[in-house]
Amino acid sequence: MPGYSTVGSNKLPEALAFYDALLGSIGIGKMFDHPSGGRIYAGKDGSFFGVLGPYDGQPATVGNGSMTGFPLDSEEKIAAFHAKALELGGTCDGAPGPRGPEGAGIYFAYVRDLDGNKLCAYKFG
Question: Residues 46, 81, 78, CA angle at the centre, nearest 5°?
């Protein structure tokens, strides 16, 4: 299981406001500001998430097929994460709801951040 994930941004001040509020709503907080003008966030489980200016100095681009998932423990928290992202200017990429086989207890919601990076909140079982 990955222990950290990063996304690039071309609008770092706006991205930091977005992620401070969104990640703060699920208990993930700032660890430190990154030299690129971005920020590293830390979860209580030892995982890390970064919003960065690309190291090579080129514009950030969205990874086709890339996604970062945030495990949450209830459908209500997933719906709240999704709603918070939309409130902050993100876009819906899949409304909260069950996924997979009926009765499997799989629940996901998908959003895009201000730069188009895909995020999901999810739970299994």
Answer: 85
The DSSP string of 35-103 is: TTS-EEEE-TTS-EEEEE--TTSSPP---TT--EEEE-S-HHHHHHHHHHHHHTT-EEEEEEEE-SSTT
Per-residue pLDDT of the chain in tens (125 residues, 90 and over written 9): 567 899 999 999 999 999 999 999 999 999 999 999 999 999 988 899 999 999 899 999 988 889 999 999 999 999 999 999 999 999 999 999 999 888 888 999 999 999 999 999 999 98
What pTM was computed for the model? 0.90
Q: Show the domains of the chain with their CATH numbers.
A: 4-54+66-123 (3.10.180.10)
List residues bridging with 107 in a β-sheet.
Answer: 98, 123
> How far apart are the C-alpha atoms of 19 and 110, rounded to whole Å?
15
Structure token digits, residue 19: 């992620």
